[in-house]
Amino acid sequence: MFGYYLDLAVHSLKRNKVLTGLMVLAIAMGIGASMTTLTVLHVLSGDPLPGRSGSLYTPQIDPLDLNNYAPGVEPPDQLSWIDGNYLLKAKRATRQALMTEGMVPLQPAQPSIDPFHAVALYTTADFFPMFGVPFQYGNGWGNADDDAKARVVVISAKLNDKLFGGKNSVGKELRLQEKAFRIIGVLGDWHPQPHFYQLYMGSYADDEDIFVPFFTSRDLHMEHDGSTDCWGNSGGDPNNLEHVNCTWLQFWVQLDTPQAVAAYKSFLVNYSQEQHDNGRFARSPNVRLRNVMQWLDYQQVVPSDTRLQAWLAISFLVVCLVNTVGLMLAKFMRRAGELSVRRALGASQRALFGQLLMESGIVGCVGGVAGLLLALLGLWLVRQQPADYAKIAHMDASMLVVTFALSICASLLAGLLPAWRACRVTPALQLKAN
Amino acid sequence: MEIRPILSALRRHRLATLLIALEIALACAVLCNACFLIIAREQRTKLNSGVDERSLAFVKVTGFDDAAARDLNARMLSGLGSIAGVQSASAINTVPFGQNAGTVGMSLDPAMKHINAVVDIYLGGPGSFRALGVKLVAGRLPQADDYAPIENYFPKDAQIWVTRSLADHLWPGENPLGKDFYCFGPFRYRVAGVLDHLAIAMPGSRGPYSVDWSVFIPVQPGPFLTGSYLVRAAPGDIQRVMRDARAVVAKVAPDVVFDSDESGTLSDLRHTYFQNDRAMARVLIGVIVALLLVTALGIVGLASFWVQQRRKQIGIRRAIGATRGDILRYFQTENFLIVSMGIVLGVILAYALNLVLMKAYEVTHLPLGYLLASAIVLWLLGQLAVLGPALRAAAVPPVVATRSV
């Protein structure tokens, strides 16, 4: 039966090429536009560390004074030096890492390369195992290196290619800010997008070039970039960030079970209460503990323009669908004569309905293929855009399936009403009229 | 033209009529709002920064020790000043369309209980005020002894110049000259002049009202103001001066790193700053074109179907005396009626969509002009789309009436 309907449908579609072409074009344009924007949205709101992100949390506590305070207000996004160090040293989570970013002048040994600024992440030992960072050569540093303020550095694969032609550079020397550092590791292929652990350099920023032990960076007064939010009357002396009322550090912890999450949250509350009782915190305990996806959602990393484009494209798809409904109606009603002959010869309404829907399905399939091509073209256009997220806009397998599913569903939906109308022909009346 | 027969014919094709009207309505809603968004983006890129962008360039270097700041400033200023065609070189912390530098919350109350505004503070060394080319509307120009020393990121006590829009926000209806405001509690600033315009470093990043909320403080360059410079030259020279600046920096300060991302002529920085807005406007234009195309194709498709379905009736009308013009006008009027129905529905939809957008984005109420304009566009589009099928209908010969099939 299926094969027969297919045959009939193809035959009928071929008979009126212009109308069929218009329907395919409308579906293809709608699908192409929506899939382009939905793919961008999908990529941008993706999980940066699949499988791991659910157990990674970032604590927020509220050390601010009472100015502009209202109950339920969000605590600052970052931690101050005192709080960050306390949480790090407390070691209440499976793993924990304190971090911030900066630009470090790098003086290459090769005279052919000019000195430049490397994007550096200053962090602590657990960063690498906690985020599951793969290494091409060597590995990260340990807690002892953190404590000793060791002059060691981990570099990205890209920097290793640039400076050492991709060869194993572990053990070599790297000059940062006029000081000698020993390379102990070269990262493998690791590009979490969005750049969840450090959003201040841009949510889809390029990865860091170098990773330097956090306490070493403070010891050598390496430059801190990113936001420094201060309160009270202390000002924000960049060389004195250890002693001012400013938040400027990111802190991530690994908590593997719901019990651990609850325990960590109560630990944060207790700490805040203690600080409040001591008079250091003016506000009563105000803490948050968000995991990676909740954090990205809270920080609204997906650009609002991208959402707007997705909504535009979806409304465009709706217009295309209404258009297709109209065209299908025209097409099916035109065949009232043929349909009534088939009814008179004994075909049931259901059989006619199935046959007409088959036609819509074929239009959907062809429209889907054309829409996919348009979406690929659209994504190519998106990649030409200047935005920092542009380069990661690529179609993946799941969006490919969604494209076809959406296309076929859309065309079947568009076919429902016209097919139902066309099946309700009264054969006798129609035959007599002709 | 008789409208009654058209209406009674449409009543027999309720579903198809409704579909076209619905399509027009959706197109109208999207069209109005998309145009509105495009114009809003366009206006953003036209922002008046208040400075002589065409004559200015910003040079930023990094990677020096704070101890060497005074020496570096002297070398950089004399080096940049010596480039042929440079009218002046001065120290400044940032420029409009540059990076955020001195963003602070400020208060009219010394205890800082309430933050009245978040502003960008421009810290400019001697010569920078004149070089910027900002227009003074009240008060006086900075004098030699206004240049305050920087204590901790900012001067503790200084004469300042505020923009008119900031003055209106802080002291509505009052004379701002001589008024005080406070940052970080003990830092007290007194207004010595009012500027016509001076955009914040990243205009629009803190909402549409604060694009001009800037403060200019004349300061003495030092450890907190090193490595960023304003260069002024004639508009024709500025691109070349910028190219030369790189070589000069390499010569006068070989150990520092020239920051290529943040340095540039102000025209280039402005161009880069609004890149995303222009890209978004292009996307919106693409959507509008595609939308109009699909709508037109839909009208062509359905109108052709109707013409074919009514061949016999058209033949009869022709046989009993209707002219070709009558038939043509019949289809045109029919289309006009359907499109008008769609527009009525579309206006409601457009306002609903506008309300949704107002919640999520910084847009204002949709002005009536947009509705009128998109109604006219859709009427014209409908007439254009129906013209082909209507001409075919007009060409139906009267003899069709006599044929049985």
TrEMBL record, chain A:
UniProt entry keywords in alphabetical sequence: Cell membrane, Membrane, Transmembrane, Transmembrane helix
Domain ABC3 transporter permease C-terminal: from-to ranges: 313-427
GO molecular function: transmembrane transporter activity
Superkingdom assignment: Bacteria
Location, primary (coarse class): membrane
Membrane topology summary: Multi-pass membrane protein
Bilayer-spanning residue ranges: 21-44, 310-330, 351-377, 397-420
Location in the cell: Cell membrane
Pfam families per record: FtsX, MacB_PCD
Domain MacB-like periplasmic core residue range list: 20-263
Protein name: ABC transporter permease
Organism the protein comes from: Dyella monticola
TrEMBL record, chain B:
Gene Ontology MF terms: transmembrane transporter activity
InterPro entries: ABC3_permease_C, Macrolide_Exporter_MacB
Pfam families: FtsX
Transmembrane segments: 15-39, 283-307, 336-357, 369-391
Membrane topology value: Multi-pass membrane protein
Primary localisation category: membrane
Domain of life: Bacteria
Domain ABC3 transporter permease C-terminal: 287-397
This protein's record includes keyword Transmembrane: yes
Keyword tags: Cell membrane, Membrane, Transmembrane, Transmembrane helix
A single Gene Ontology CC term: plasma membrane
Compartment(s) where it occurs, according to its Swiss-Prot or TrEMBL record: Cell membrane
Tagged with keyword Transcription regulation: no
Similarity field: Belongs to the ABC-4 integral membrane protein family.
Protein name as annotated: ABC3 transporter permease C-terminal domain-containing protein
Organism, as annotated: Dyella monticola
